[in-house]
Amino acid sequence: MRSSRAVCLALALTTLPVQAREPGRTRRVSLDVVRAPVEEVLRGLAEMGGLNLVLSEEVGGTVTLTLRDVPWTQAFQGVLVSQGLGMERKGNILRVAPLRVLQEEAEARARLAQARKDEGPLRTWLLPVSHARAAELLPQVQALLSPRGRVSVDARTNTLIVTDVEAPVLP
Q1: What gap in Å lies between CA 160 and CA 158, rounded to an integer?
Q2: Any signal peptide, and if so, which residues (predicted)?
Q3: I need a surface site. Which of 2, 63, 86, 143 has the fewest CB within 10 A?
């Protein structure tokens, strides 16, 4: 079994330099390790990519790799997939954790965002309708409302009166 220093040294020595005349080209690596700690391999690959790395406490084990002249991003993804890991990237920070943990967190964020949206203040819109009867549009509009939303029709002015939470403004 190689030590973690040997893994970092192997990573550093097998990196091919990025060609200055090809600005879009990613760094390529060749790597041959046997039963190396996953944490050390990921740290070395992240360093090659010029990224910071945050590892979950659940990331562990060893990995055996033989890679020849592959983009470092593919090498990084290969290690992640082989260990059932995933990553989130924010800026120049990579966060690595088991896929199930990342999926649970994403679902929790989605539930929180939906709860915030559903609990937002109600707003009312008056939507005059031309070239159709507002009452005929009622089912289609109701299908688009949140659970708190409601719609009614002012037949005299042919206007839909919609009350619902305001949709968030997306960038």
Answers
A1: 7
A2: 1-20
A3: 143
Q: Alpha-carbon distance 45 to 24, whole Å? A: 18
Distance (Å, whole) CA 99 – CA 86: 5
What is the 3-class SS of 5-65, one letter each residue? HHHHHHHHHCEECCCCCCCCCCCEEEEEEEEEEHHHHHHHHHHHCCCEEEECCCCCCEEEE
Other C-beta atoms within 10 Å of 76: how many?
A: 24
Predicted pLDDT at 24: 44
CB atoms within 10 A of CB 35: 10
- Mean pLDDT for 95-107 is 94
Asked whether 36 and 63 are in contact (CB, 8 A), the reply is: yes
Q: What is the CATH number of domain 28-110?
A: 3.55.50.30
